[in-house]
Amino acid sequence: MPVERSSMMNPGLVREIAISDLPGSDIHGMISDRYKFNPEESAGLRKWISDTALIESEGGTVNPETSARGMFQFLTRGDNNSFQTGLNRLSTAYEILGNDIPDWVASAKKHGDPDSLTEDQQRDLFLGNIFSSIKSPEETERLLKGASRGNLESSVELYMKYHHGSGGKKKERDSARKRATSIYGGNYNRGGLVRDSYGRTLF
């Protein structure tokens, strides 16, 4: 099983965390079962989700310049309310994957606040939104399997096309792609590889 290595704050000490110890979610488990992911692929998908949270928010921080909130920075106001869209797509994902829609989804549609969700719920929202956004079953399997296997091209394509989106200025899209390529590729700029469940660098 692959591990992440990082120097801790105390000089000379090294901590190893198995990627399989990163948190999963309901949708993650359903997708892993649907595509018959082996343990390494399932762990790799968890890592991709964790890395995406790091790309988006470094821990669910509030962006004062936009309505983006939560680990994955869903917009919460206006015509581009991606939080409500994501919840609708998550409901579709549960239906496609053959499971009942949890009660918290309806509650989230009412309160409209990603930061009020648990970390697992935010991960379900993120992955369910992506799963239901891809129209081709073949592309869904190709990109999710690629990301789960650590394929950089698939990881970046999945993020840019189905989460970040194609809106905004070209400079902003290029910056997002560069950051995603750096983080998915393991070239962390903040010095640490041990992260908490929000994706924040700890050491």
Characterise this structure.
It is a single chain. This protein has helices at residues 26-34, 39-56, 82-96, 103-111, 119-133, 137-148, 152-164, 170-184; strands at residues 3-7, 14-18. With 203 residues, it is mainly alpha-helical. The chain has one domain. A hairpin with a 6-residue loop joins strand 1 (3-7) and strand 2. Helix 3 runs antiparallel to helix 4 (103-111) and helix 6 (137-148) crosses helix 7 (152-164). The longest helix is centred in the first third of the chain and has 18 residues, at 39-56. The model is unreliable at 1-17 and 189-203 (pLDDT under 50).
Count the beta strands. Answer: 2
Which structural category fits the helices and strands? mainly alpha
The main pleated sheet reads as: 2 strands, antiparallel
Calculate the mean pLDDT score and round it: 81
Beta-strand percentage?
under 5%
Provide the spatial order of strands within the biggest beta sheet.
1-2
Give the overall shape, derived from the CA principal axes.
globular
Radius of gyration computed on alpha carbons? 16 Å
Low-confidence stretches: 1-17, 189-203
Task: Give the total of domains.
Answer: 1
CA-to-CA gap between the ends? Answer: 21 Å
Q: Please tally the helical runs, counting DSSP H or I stretches of 4 or more residues.
A: 8
Q: How do the helices and strands follow one another from N- to C-terminus?
A: EEHHHHHHHH
